[in-house]
């Protein structure tokens, strides 16, 4: 396999790198060889061109262009042939042309959805971030820094032939100075966001950098990843001890502990040199002496983190809250107990000494001094206000540890991997870029952790721990931990008021007192200066409060005058209200008098109306009485007469049947008489003719009556109506009502 090594940074576009990472993310196996990684690169080419057919020459050209790797056509064809049928082949111009199967391409597109952009979108949505573009750009800038620096670092770590001196410090370390505070906060919260799948995606992005470097570098002389049985030693720098004990914060502690646990799993010998142990406890003693030298009161929570970083000073403050009344001697004993537990838990070889014959040799001293000078020179060129990871003021310890590690490597004839694990940014940069050794000695715990994930396998918990390594701080440290402690001690010795402390710390954070800090000759002077600053601040606060009090008094005086004016107006208003009230009472009395008169008039009218009603009623009853006989005579005479006639006719008929000529009754006699008359002689069946005529006459009279108004007497409604009309007519005819009452 052909490999093209470069002497400078190898840049892969974010898009292509994220696609590779998404492909890794989709895999269930943790074991990838070079062919696996190259296959993923080839698949990304087909994703880019929407799965158009590509010849072997097109594939090699695309891999070279996108991933800066020289792949031979024969190698490409071999990888495709071993790909378990995910490609289909046709002939184009006498050559094989390849395309992903429909299923494989769909699976590839599904992987694409698992890239980091999906998690960024979810993060923006979950936390309701207003400026989506700013957030996305900040995260991508961070990931660009993260990936490019990791690629560069792994290239330096694995490649003996690369020109390491060509790399700048910024090319080997993440530089986020271009981000403002809001952008840093957005990136920090994104990485801190508790989302296991996001953590895996982030971890795989960096893991992809490792896989890429392994492919590009080919067979490295470094055998770290070649065998699980290979002997490996790591020396812990002092800063790693601080982090492992939680003295630099819980997040860093968890990350380092996960790293050390992975080292145990990989059967790596963990060593703390005698000088590192001495430096650790010397640092602890120095800080305790500093705390004793500068008495202080209660310090607000989070003050140290705003100025510097979580350090032994803030660690002590938290310890003191739960151990009230205990002296610093007990705190020192507590640290010693924590250290002993830590060494035992991870089976650490403690206080290994450099053999005296080596340590005191002139050659060792000469090279150590050379290294120490170079390290110091690197640190002095950084132009940073302070170095967060530098716990020692003497670089000789680092120089000794690096030099001794190199000697041990030579002694083992490269049969053992030996590293110094440190978080010291400048020490690592010096080691990465020097040309007097074959391979770097100093390695970040995050880098070695990733190598161990490659060697021992990965879990979701491992990725969560790894993400803690790659997070940036939400706030950059402005002063050293010692300076932060001195400043806060000076402030708290004057006042324990949280609000005052917050205000002064905020002014430091905004840079108002930067010159004061820079120009202080020593910590005692800095302590006194911030005592004076705090005292001055309190005096100014007092003056401001007095001014505010005076202004408040003036305002109160003005308000009292305004109140007096209002009171006078109120009195005037009350007088007017009293007058209006009296006027209303008088008017009410007048209205009552009028109401009484109206009531009397109403009573008179009522009585008169009642008298009229009684008079009308008496007239009505009189008229009703007077008209009763004539009314009933009018309406009853005709029906009575008809009734009598019908009754007579019935008797007449009956008599016809009960009488005869020998014993005649009046009906028989009448008929016999009538029959003797001229008419009777002319009419046959005379009797029936007479009965018929009489019946017809009576029926005719009854019909006339039925149709007449008089018949309405037998209908109640009609009778009552006629009765009322008869009464009214009588009253009217006799003029019984006056005109006024009619």
Describe this structure in words.
This protein is mainly α and 742 residues long. It has 4 domains: 1-220, no CATH class; 222-299 and 309-443, 5'-nuclease (Rossmann fold, 3-Layer(aba) Sandwich); 525-658 and 710-733, no CATH class; 666-707. The protein has helices at 14-26, 34-48, 56-67, 73-81, 102-112, 116-126, 132-158, 169-172, 181-192, 196-217, 238-244, 250-265, 274-293, 303-307, 312-322, 328-345, 356-359, 362-380, 396-411, 425-433, 445-456, 460-470, 481-494, 498-509, 514-519, 523-658, 666-676, 678-682, 686-707, 716-733; strands at 54-55, 87-92, 95-100, 231-236, 269-273, 349-352, 416-421, 442-443. The protein has a 5-stranded parallel β-sheet. A 3-stranded antiparallel β-sheet has the order 1-3-2. A hairpin with a 2-residue loop joins strand 2 (87-92) and strand 3 (95-100). The longest helix has 136 residues, at 523-658. It is elongated. The N and C termini lie far apart (135 Å). 30% of the residues are buried. The model is unreliable at 1-11 and 383-393 (pLDDT under 50).
Brief summary:
By secondary structure, the chain is mainly alpha-helical. It has 30 helices and eight strands.
Helical content class: 55-70%
Separation of the first and last Cα atoms: 135 Å
Give the strand content.
under 5%
Tally of helical runs: 30
Specify Rg, calculated over alpha carbons: 60 Å
Oligomeric state of the chains present here:
single chain
- Uncertain runs are 1-11, 383-393
Structural class: mainly alpha
